[in-house]
TrEMBL record:
This is FAD-binding oxidoreductase. Keywords: FAD, Flavoprotein. One of its GO terms (molecular function) is oxidoreductase activity, acting on the CH-OH group of donors, oxygen as acceptor. Coiled coil: none annotated. Residues 8-180 form the FAD-binding PCMH-type domain. It comes from Pseudaminobacter soli. Pfam families: FAD_binding_4.
Length: 450
């Protein structure tokens, strides 16, 4: 046994026990894994407690890091669960392929991308990561391995995609990559002065581009409230097909004793960022790492939020409520005196995930990052949850560290389907905090509290 790393947000205590993937596989095959004993752990990039277990043991899957097969004609790639997306990109890029969906970091494992059904800047065209999974090889605590596809063990396949690692150990998976002319991206930057301008342009930006996302100046109020930049992109013809160096160029080498991302810094940063991206030509060529993974260039950047860590709040708001609710979420945050270092607004499309439990749905998704200031921050997050639920939306469970069982149940009424498919030997702190409380005799009180 060894001490495991915690979550990327660092607002929950790290799990105290962990075992290597080989040990976990042997335990599973022996049939001696007890109830709520195990939880798979990828590269620790989840913000909340879906990758943590208070009373169980983490199965560290990072040693399962082989790419098993890659068909350079079809783009089908089979790899072990601990392979990083950065490794997949490096393998596939020289042959003209790229993952069809990437999150905001390339340093997540294949198993983690499946278990969290991650999404990217092109949900309007490609849906979630799970839409491109062809096969999952899953080991369950009964000692048996299951081949899961849309046609074989289909319910287990649907539960494992977006299933937070609760259905068993993903040993390997086959995904279908996307053919691209190059890794480079032609990026178009369009400034907007208020949110209505963004909403007026967002649908057309989705139709015209593979990728589209908006950066917001979250602190701007008054006549500048809602200003930001609409960033759209497409893979460039004749660009680079080499992944190049993928490691971070800079690092935060130690934990500062205070939060460095305070309001004066954020105000100056937002002004400088908006000015630098708005000046000059509106269209430019950019490397894929700068476009998809800008924060990957700084190792341990989460330390900038201070020793108490950070909370990320990601909501999805239905189309019909977005023009009223998104400004309200931003206004509520400013009124609470909280600043978000990275504020992102995207439009989700209607591509259906095969997952039983998946966060994206038609509407707009707003992401806010907050340093942990204790009860002040918790009160704000609870208020943001209430606004989201009142609008008919949901909060992302894959990035959460504190939502109530009631908030979870309202946004994900089919959670019982995943609970039915959960391997009894698997449990996370998130699932124990939400779903298991909903199952308890006090579930009615828990729903009311949410």
């Amino acid at each position: 046994m060894k001490l495991a790393r915690g979550s990327f947000g660092r607002t929950t205590p790290p799990s105290q026990r962990a075992m290597e993937a080989g040990e976990a596989i042997a335990l599973m095959k022996s049939g001696r894994a007890g109830p709520a004993m195990i939880l798979p752990y990828g590269n620790g990039r989840s913000y909340g407690d879906s990758c943590q277990t208070e009373r169980g043991i983490l199965a560290d899957m990072r040693s399962l890091n082989r790419i098993i097969a890659f068909d350079t004609e079809s783009g089908l790639l089979t790899a072990e669960a601990g392979v990083l997306l950065s490794d997949i990109i490096a393998k596939a890029a020289p042959h003209g392929f790229f993952p069809p969906v990437v999150p905001g970091t390339q340093f997540v494992t294949l198993g983690g991308a499946i278990a969290n059904d991650v999404h990217g800047k092109n949900h309007h065209r490609r849906g979630t990561f799970g839409c491109h999974v062809e096969r999952i090889d899953l080991l369950k605590s009964d000692g048996r391995s299951y081949v899961c596809t849309s046609g074989s063990n289909a319910r287990l396949f649907q539960a494992t995609i977006g299933g937070m690692g609760l259905t068993g150990l993903i040993l390997s998976a086959t995904i279908r990559l996307m053919r691209v002319p190059s890794l480079d991206v032609e990026e178009t930057v369009t400034p907007f002065g208020r949110l209505d301008e963004y909403f007026d342009r967002a649908e057309e930006a989705d139709r015209a581009n593979e990728y589209a996302v908006a950066w917001l100046d979250q602190l701007a109020g008054g006549r500048n409230a809602g200003r930001g930049l609409l960033l759209a992109g497409n893979h460039l013809e004749g660009g680079s097909q080499s992944a190049g160096r993928t490691g971070p160029k800079l690092s935060v080498p130690f934990q500062p004793p205070i939060n460095l991302l305070n309001r004066p810094f954020l105000t100056a940063f937002n002004a400088a960022y908006r000015w630098s991206r708005s000046r000059g030509a509106s269209t430019r060529r950019t490397g894929y790492q700068g476009f998809f993974f800008p924060l990957d260039g700084v190792a341990n950047w989460n330390r900038l939020y201070g020793p108490k860590g950070l909370f990320q709040h990601q909501s999805v708001i239905p189309f019909e409520a977005a023009r009223e609710t998104i400004p309200l979420l931003l206004h509520t945050t400013r009124e609470a005196g909280q600043g978000s270092f990275l504020t992102v607004l995207k439009r989700f499309g209607d591509v259906q995930s095969p997952a039983m439990l998946s966060f994206p749905r038609p509407g707009y998704t707003l992401t806010l990052d907050f340093p942990n200031r204790g009860q002040r921050t918790m009160a704000l997050l609870k208020e943001l949850d209430a606004i989201t639920v009142d609008a008919g939306g949901g909060v992302n469970p894959y990035k959460d560290a504190r939502m109530s069982p009631g908030t979870f149940a309202v946004a994900f009424p089919d959670w019982q389907r995943l609970e039915f498919m959960r391997d009894p030997a698997f449990m996370s702190s998130f699932w124990e905090r939400t779903a298991m409380r909903l199952k308890s005799p006090e579930r009615s009180a828990a729903r009311a509290a949410g």
